[in-house]
Design brief:
mainly alpha, 2 domains, globular, 8 helices, 3-stranded parallel sheet, about 50% helix
């Protein structure tokens, strides 16, 4: 299995947010400066978010923008939705790895709008206990058992657990190898 890497350039909106964040960071020590970044790590985290989801994170409440507007601002979600359409046409399944929970929810909403189903999200909030009625393993089995096109959103840090579950409960997920190690962020 070989990984597929795709370079998706930033939109003009993302570039403006990116430049503004760096400018704020540079001015952080100026008298009277108001900046959300106290250190380099906070700036880097914010820049990573902008590269995926071009909104002023932490400065605005989450709201779902109309999809047509959002596609213009956000090349990654546009690419993902276009790719999902191709996968749907082949009646295949896909696993979307996504680290940030706000983006997991955003993707779930847009996928539901475009494809008419709500993909499951499995992240650190999902029980791993075998005793839980709705644990990770049962949810992944349900995803595997459903015929035809499907998508599931998995927190990036759960990747080793997913590999174990897929090995324990093999199912033919055609072409998924191309997307399994291509992460969202």
């Amino acid at each position: 299995m070989s990984a597929q890497y795709i370079i998706i350039p930033l939109s003009p909106h993302q570039r403006a947010l990116y430049a503004h964040a760096i400018d704020l960071f540079r001015k952080r020590n100026a008298p009277g400066a108001l900046t959300p970044f106290r250190n380099h790590l906070e700036l880097l985290h914010y820049l990573r978010l902008i590269c995926t989801d071009p909104r002023r994170h932490g400065m605005e409440a989450f709201r779902l923008e109309p999809l047509a507007e959002y596609r213009d601002k956000a090349p990654k979600p546009r690419w993902l939705l276009d790719t999902l359409a191709t996968i749907r046409n082949r009646a295949e399944k896909v696993i979307i790895f996504c680290e940030f929970r706000v983006i997991q929810r955003l993707l779930k909403c847009y996928i539901e709008q475009v494809f008419g189903f709500s993909p499951d999200i499995i992240n650190g909030d999902t029980s791993a206990s075998a005793k839980a009625a709705d644990n990770r393993q049962k949810r992944i089995k349900a995803f595997q058992a459903k015929p035809g096109f499907g998508a599931i959103i998995l927190e990036l840090y759960d990747q080793p657990r997913l590999a174990q579950l897929l090995t324990e409960h093999p199912v033919r997920l055609t072409e998924i190898e191309r997307f399994l190690y291509t992460t969202w962020e």
